[in-house]
Amino acid sequence: SPFLLSHSLMDTITYKDRVTKNLVEEKIPSEGLLRWLYANPIGKLTLHGLVKRKAVSKTAGKYMDSKRSQKRIQRFIDLHNLDMSVYDRKNSQDYRTFNDFFYRKIDPVARPIQDGIVSPADGKALAFQNINNVDTFFVKGSEFTPQSFIEDKEHANRFEDGALFIVRLAPTDYHRYHFPASGIASASNQVKGHLYSVSPLALRKSLEIFCQNKRELCTLETKEYGNILIADVGATMVGSIYQTYAPNSHVQKGQEKGYFAFGGSTMVLMFEKDKITFSPDLLENTKNGFETAVKMGETIGS
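RESULT FIELD:
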């Protein structure tokens, strides 16, 4: 059943484990607050008047950059049962601040890059072979088109009737992101916007959040897959998006593109029509109303 049509806002959030095929219930940090902000009339006023403002995220970011935040790291690891063995620094004491820990680097040996198009990030993913099918998952009428998202008609026309991949990063996920294929990467063009939450509790209410949030857009020109739009989308407590690649240069599949500072965030990929085919499990899970847990470097299409 479609995501928004089969679930109420008070239901649990579940996703598909790609390895076991089982449904897993997601633990959402600050779940009670998010439900109040996006479902309660008073909460909605608070959301529009305060939470979306960059000042809130900036203040939180300053704390996460301070030495005082270091004490939160081990508690966070224990609370979410994080496997630190896959990262280059494996002990909480190796990180100076919470943000230093938040955008920790992964050990390349622990994450080989697979064949085909790969996921640019760790998170919960949705795959649409045609961008016009987003209504099968989100509430009908949500304004999400290449034009509304890219805000450049000529550029957006490339992706009409193309494929769409969305991977949502939770605060517990690895927060560096990578290139899904090899090619020439343009400079990142910033689109100004708010910093709404991209939690599934928020996205259930409106997919337009992606078109309203701060984001940075890059076009990757590839030989095998045509042009790929890569969008890094900020969210609540993510006032900063950092690019670490050299603009207008040749990049390798799996190469780091950048990272997000503290908070939840999202990567959006758009492909030109008929250039790729997504993996069957991703399409099937999306069709049935579920996100799929993916890892950076895993194959998502060919």
